[in-house]
Each structure stands twice: as structure tokens, then as C-alpha cells.
């Protein structure tokens, strides 16, 4: 794959004509001559992490329904598809949205599938893309930009809108989480923020000690750590609301275990008495369920740092510029670079109203990691804050393209960056511009399958049947015209 698809663009000067090895994996089990190619966009992880979508998920479902071939393309700068041996700021210059989606079009025009007869390259064969989350956005951008090469695409929970701060991440948890758990956390956070705002360092230190986190020197690190069960900014060592799923084999109980612990009305006295330790700072009002919350953190999170300094980057501290600047290739570094340069969506507390995370968590917290991680290089430097126009130029929540389908879940933490955002205009579906919102659905829930549509929950089954019908309509049009029209 060419490292630089845009040799005339000053953005990538000085240019290179070098190439790199980009991995792809395909399944031709269902393929019959004349069938489509389904390109699964790898997104921000290794290709192996997407294998389930070829075996039992949406790509398998669509291949079986249409005699298609499925292929996963690993994104540049992920897995084993790195253009360089390290990821310095200069070497990451080609880690952009436009270079990534250009890979998709180039691959569709040049891909070879050993053991499969015939030329399956685009545009002579209908290529239909699928991606979830960031890969969903890349699917949409690819079809929008290269519609003369790529026949169609399904963007699932595609984060097509870039923003700087994204407090809406916590909105579905506020709305749909167990109400007594949510109310307790809102109240505890409100009291915590009162102590911080009033600069009562003694009380704040007592609060940290209650959680066993008195060693954390930065209040933001403390705030992020106790938010891990909910989802701290970009970091959460346990599973959160985002990892909930419709199928028991894919889901996790971490979030609901957390809330069950927070709301435990049968907690022993040594736990419930903690609720009164800080009451002197809040006009005698107890911190209801603080003991339960702290007990969960001490039992679940602190063991992750066994034998490690809590204030270090090996545990819950983040205030180490040298740690962030390590240029070793990693998916986390690549994702952070994209976040810092184009995507944004820093998880922050809302400016007003109830909050599940402390209001000390604002844009500056994530931005400092960006500044530490990517010091200016000889040719490339990151902007002061993400250049959102680089991402939003494709249309944001108003993006449209022929044969580009959008499917989202209304309980998804990323919903307000997606096509069905609560901030977007009303949506109306058509065969050429299909859209579907899964009631009660989470983050790209349609990407998962169990090899038996009839056994799926009705709301997932119907989403899958809609996707099958949508693609079949596109292919019927293709066959009637033998190509694009």
C-alpha cells in the first residue's frame, strides 16, 4: 500500500513514494462467481480482533445471503500494518482520515484473493463496505469520497461528527442506567466538586483516602480513576456501558455489578458508616452510598495495581510526559494521535446539570496527553486542539451518499456523533439512502451474530433482516444495470 496517496498535497511534504505491507484476511466460504465483496473496515484495532464478524457476525450474515466474499482490511498504523518501525510525530504524519479511506479505495482496485477465480476488483465487482464506530465513519467517508469505485456501505454507529468536548458520552447512562445508582453517583460527584471548588484540600485528601487513592496527586487522575466503572476519559480497565451487548456470550456484567454494589442496601455497618465521614463538610448531609462506591473501587480497581505505585503511569497516574512520548508502535498511540489531530470527542463533564464524572475533567486534561505524546517533529506537529474541519469536511451528521446506509443504537454512548444524533435533523429512510435506529441498541450491536437469525432477539433479528434486504436491493440494481448508474 502506498504510504502517501496525495503526492501533490502540501500537508504531507516532504513526500514519500514508499509502500508498506497492509494485512488483509478473507473468507470465500459462501462465495459464488458474480457475488459481491464485503469489505470490513478494521478500525482502531488489529484485524484478528474482527474475525468474529467473518465467522458469526454481520459479514457472515451478508455473505451467506448474497453469495459474497468477506474481507477484513487492517487499518494503517494498527495490528501489524505499520508504515514505519516506530510512531514518532513525523512518522505519524500519514495517520489521517483521508489517507486511511484512500487505502480502502486503493485496496478495492488492487486486491487479489488467492484460490478465488476471476477478477474481483472494483468497480467491476460491487464492493460494499461495513464498519462500526470509527470504522463506521471511515465506511461513510469512503463511500462519500470514492462512490465511483465503492458501490455501497453500511456505517454502524459511525462517529461521523467531530467535536472537541463530548459530555454527551454519559447521557445514555444518565438516561437508562439504574436510577438509584445514577442518583447516588450524581450526588457524590456534586459534593466532591463542591470540595474541590472551595479548595478544601484537607477534605479532598480525606475523600481520596476513602477510595484508597490518597497517593494520586492530581485531582483529575483521581476523578478519572473513580469514573473507570462508568468510563473515564479514553481509559477504562473494566468494562463499561459501551461494552454491554444483546447476546450473553458477548456482553459483560461489569457495569451492572458496579451499580449493584453502589446501591447495596445490605452493606455492613463498616461500609455504610463511611457515608458520614465527610458530612461535616456538607452541612451534615451524608454522602449516600459513598461507602459502597469506595468499597467497589478498592475491591475491583486497586488490585489491578498490586505492587505498583498508584500515582505512576503503570497504575492510575497520568502526569508523566516521558511515558506519553514513547514512540513505540501501538494501537493506543495511533488512536490517541487521531483523537488529538482530527477526531476530538474528548470525554468531559457537562458544564451544568447532574454529572457522573467530576467537572475537573475537561478538555485540558486530555489535551495535555496530546501535547506530551506528540512533541513537534521536523516536518509535522499536532494542532493546539484537534483540527475538526479535517474530519467534518465529509459532512458530519448531514453526510449523505448513494447506497450508504446508517444504522445506530439509541442507547449508544457515541450516539450524538452518529447519523441519528439527538442533535441532528429528523431522519427519513429510502432505498438509496437507508437508515435504521435500533430501539434499546448499543454500540454497533448489529455487527454481532450467532449463526442463527431465528434465535436472535427480535429487535436485532429485524435489524439484520433490514441489512440483508438493503444490500439485496442494491445488488438487484447492480445486476439490472451491470454496474453503477
UniProtKB/TrEMBL annotation:
N-terminal signal peptide: none
GO molecular function, one term: dipeptidyl-peptidase activity
Domain of life: Eukaryota
Keyword Hydrolase: yes
Keyword hit for Nucleotide-binding: no
GO biological processes: proteolysis
Pfam family name, one: Peptidase_S28
Assigned keywords, A-Z: Glycoprotein, Hydrolase, Protease, Signal
InterPro entries hit by this protein: AB_hydrolase_fold, Peptidase_S28
Family statement: Belongs to the peptidase S28 family.
Stated name of the protein: Uncharacterized protein
Origin species: Amorphotheca resinae ATCC 22711
Amino acid at each position: 500500500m502506498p504510504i502517501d496517496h496525495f503526492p501533490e498535497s502540501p500537508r504531507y511534504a516532504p513526500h514519500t513514494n514508499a509502500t508498506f505491507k497492509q494485512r488483509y484476511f478473507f473468507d470465500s466460504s459462501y462465495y459464488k462467481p458474480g457475488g459481491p465483496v464485503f469489505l470490513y473496515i478494521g478500525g482502531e484495532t488489529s484485524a484478528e480482533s474482527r474475525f468474529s464478524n467473518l465467522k458469526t457476525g454481520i459479514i457472515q450474515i451478508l455473505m451467506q445471503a448474497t453469495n459474497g466474499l468477506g474481507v477484513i482490511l487492517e487499518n494503517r498504523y494498527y495490528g501489524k500494518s505499520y508504515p514505519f518501525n516506530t510512531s514518532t510525530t513525523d512518522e505519524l504524519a500519514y495517520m489521517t482520515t483521508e489517507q486511511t479511506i484512500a487505502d480502502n479505495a486503493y485496496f478495492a482496485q488492487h486486491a487479489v484473493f488467492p484460490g478465488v477465480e476471476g477478477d474481483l476488483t472494483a468497480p467491476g465487482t460491487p464492493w460494499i463496505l461495513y464498519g462500526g464506530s470509527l470504522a463506521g465513519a471511515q465506511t461513510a467517508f469512503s463511500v462519500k469520497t470514492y462512490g465511483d469505485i465503492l458501490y455501497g456501505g453500511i456505517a454502524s454507529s459511525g462517529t461521523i461528527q467531530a467535536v472537541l468536548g463530548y459530555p454527551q458520552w454519559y447521557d445514555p447512562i444518565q438516561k437508562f442506567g439504574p436510577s438509584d445508582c445514577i442518583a447516588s453517583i450524581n450526588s457524590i460527584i456534586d459534593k466532591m466538586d463542591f470540595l474541590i471548588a472551595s479548595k478544601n484540600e484537607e477534605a479532598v485528601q480525606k475523600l481520596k483516602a476513602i477510595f484508597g487513592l490518597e497517593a494520586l496527586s492530581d485531582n483529575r487522575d483521581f476523578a478519572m480513576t473513580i469514573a473507570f466503572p462508568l468510563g473515564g476519559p479514553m481509559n477504562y480497565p473494566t468494562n463499561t456501558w459501551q461494552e454491554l451487548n444483546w447476546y450473553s456470550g458477548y456482553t459483560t456484567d461489569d457495569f451492572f455489578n458496579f451499580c449493584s454494589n453502589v446501591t447495596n442496601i445490605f452493606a455492613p455497618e463498616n461500609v455504610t458508616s463511611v457515608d458520614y465521614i465527610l458530612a461535616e463538610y456538607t452541612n451534615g448531609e451524608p454522602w449516600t452510598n459513598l461507602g459502597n462506591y469506595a468499597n467497589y473501587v478498592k475491591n475491583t480497581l486497586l488490585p489491578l495495581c498490586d505492587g505498583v505505585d498508584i500515582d505512576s503511569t503503570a497504575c492510575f497516574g497520568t502526569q508523566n510526559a516521558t511515558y506519553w512520548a514513547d514512540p513505540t508502535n501501538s494501537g493506543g498511540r495511533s488512536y490517541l494521535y487521531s483523537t488529538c489531530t482530527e477526531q476530538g470527542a474528548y470525554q468531559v463533564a457537562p458544564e451544568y446539570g447532574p454529572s457522573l464524572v467530576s467537572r475537573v475533567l475537561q478538555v485540558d486534561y486530555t489535551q495535555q496527553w496530546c501535547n506530551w505524546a506528540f512533541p513537534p517533529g521536523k516536518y509535522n506537529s499536532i494542532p493546539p486542539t484537534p483540527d475538526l474541519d479535517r474530519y467534518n469536511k465529509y459532512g458530519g451528521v448531514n453526510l449523505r451518499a448513494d447506497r450508504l446506509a446508517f444504522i445506530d443504537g439509541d442507547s449508544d454512548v457515541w450516539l450524538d456523533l452518529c447519523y441519528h444524533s439527538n442533535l441532528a435533523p429528523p431522519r427519513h429512510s429510502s432505498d438509496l439512502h437507508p437508515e435504521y435506529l435500533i430501539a434499546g441498541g448499543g454500540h454497533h450491536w448489529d455487527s454481532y451474530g450467532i449463526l442463527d437469525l431465528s434465535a436472535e432477539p427480535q429487535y436485532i433479528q429485524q435489524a439484520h433482516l433490514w441489512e440483508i434486504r438493503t444490500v439485496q436491493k442494491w445488488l438487484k440494481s447492480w445486476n439490472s444495470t451491470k454496474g453503477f448508474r
